[in-house]
Write a structure and sequence with these properties.
The complex is a heterodimer. By secondary structure, chain A is an alpha+beta fold. Chain A has six helices and five strands. In chain B, strands 1-2-4-3 form a four-stranded antiparallel beta sheet. Chain B is built from five helices and four strands; from the N terminus they run H-H-H-E-E-H-H-E-E.
Chain lengths: 228, 187
């Protein structure tokens, strides 16, 4: 049996039909509008943040390049040659010996033998045991300069200084190589990078050829017929 | 004969209730519509401003990219340089950083009234160290102990403890040797 609706109720429904429709729309809006609006708002915030980061990165590059072009004494190739020399693209044993010779000349700490430590070496790292002779100040000079002074990045994981023994000092030194990548992680302050290289440059005690092409810097070293 | 009878008073009471609910219903619609409208207006303005900003930033990015595109080779070199410097910083963590720590130790001992002689010093890449000091008289040893316990000395170390104390007799001269172990604070 069909439920009976009174005529007055029908009249009221007809009279307020617009309110009922609006209420229905409002009910849907309550669930949809805030989520759509807030979603658009947060998506826009993300887009702005991303584009601002990109812009910061681009501006940093632009500023660094215009800084380089505004100073006649500095050019990008020189910076590139320095970092490529410190960490070459591929390992080259002669540059290792060349760097050690530079250090020996620079510090007077005479390196008498080198031996490759294959156990500690990896794809990007060559570990070499170096034995040298010198007095206290020469050895200290060597310890002061070895990091970049020879033109290659050198690290020593452990160093022992004994105030009485200065002959036959053995050091385990690491040399690094790494292929250049164009992958960028995060925003970089390029001017700060250049100033870091300027700082390194002051510690490197020999001249780089600034007009060489990419990679050629590791080819331009004096070679020996018998490096050992 | 059956007749349909309607109690008009009951119906009137029910209808007046419905009318009251309708009034509340309309008022609620008005309030909720106003809230939604204000919400949409506020966020509409904010989103409009965001879109304007996005457009401006996009234009700036486009302009700067255009300038950079004229120096493409230099840009590539700059990225490679930055990555090499990152590699250099990462590889440098393998280094014991001996000289700066040696200097700190030397400078600190130079503040001491008694001159302590560093006999040997070992530093590892994780800043762990051990060093030995030697003395020819007990007074100097005790003075140095006092200095080692001072804030001036301890500020350079994360941890430091006495590992060993030994005495030797070298050609009739008594030699005191103390060995410390610990970790330097990062420079």
């Amino acid at each position: 049996m069909k439920p009976k609706i009174s005529p007055y109720l029908k009249y009221l429904l007809a009279e307020n039909i617009y309110y009922i429709i609006i209420a229905f729309i409002l009910l849907i809006s309550i669930f949809m509008v805030p989520s759509i609006v807030l979603n658009t708002y947060s998506q826009n915030i993300e887009k702005i943040n991303t584009i601002e980061e990109e812009l910061q990165e681009i501006n940093s590059k632009k500023n660094a390049l215009s800084f380089l072009s505004s100073t006649s004494s500095k050019n990008i190739d020189e910076y590139y040659n320095i970092v490529s020399s410190l960490i070459p693209e591929t390992e080259n044993y002669f540059t290792i010996i060349y760097a050690l010779n530079n250090l020996a000349e620079l510090t007077n700490f005479n390196i008498t033998s080198y031996s490759l430590n294959l156990k500690e070496s990896t794809v990007n790292k060559i570990s070499i045991e170096v034995t040298g002779v010198g007095n206290h100040s020469e050895f200290l000079n060597f310890l002061k300069e070895y990091n970049v002074g020879g033109g290659r990045l050198i690290t020593a994981e452990e160093i022992t200084l004994n105030s009485e023994e200065f002959t036959g000092i053995t050091l385990r030194l690491n040399f690094y190589s790494q292929k250049s990548s164009l992958f960028q992680r995060g925003t970089i302050d390029y001017k700060n990078i250049l100033s870091k290289i300027d700082n390194l440059k002051s510690k490197i005690k020999f001249n780089f050829q600034t007009d060489t092409k990419e990679e050629s810097v590791i080819e331009d070293y004096p070679t020996k017929t018998n490096p050992f | 004969m059956r007749t349909n009878r309607t109690n008009l008073l009951i119906s009137k009471h029910g209808y007046s209730n419905i009318l009251r609910y309708l009034k509340i219903f309309k008022l609620l619609i008005l309030i909720i519509s106003s809230i939604i409208l204000i919400f949409v207006l506020i966020f509409g303005v904010l989103i409009f401003k965001q879109n304007q900003k996005l457009e401006m930033l996009g234009q700036q990015k486009q302009d700067n990219l255009q300038i950079l595109s004229t120096k493409k080779d230099d840009e590539v070199k700059l990225i490679k340089i930055a990555n090499k410097i990152k590699n250099l910083e990462a590889f440098s963590k393998d280094d014991a950083n001996f000289y700066p720590y040696y200097q700190i130790l030397n400078q600190t001992f130079s503040l001491s009234t008694e001159e302590a002689k560093i006999e040997d010093l070992n530093i590892q890449k994780d800043r762990k160290f051990n060093f030995s000091l030697s003395f020819t008289d007990l007074k100097s040893l005790l003075e140095t102990f006092k200095f080692i316990e001072s804030e001036e000395f301890l500020k350079n170390f994360s941890t430091i403890f006495l590992k060993n104390l030994e005495t030797q007799d070298k050609q009739g001269i008594k030699l005191y040797r103390i060995t410390f172990e610990g970790t330097f604070k990062e420079i």
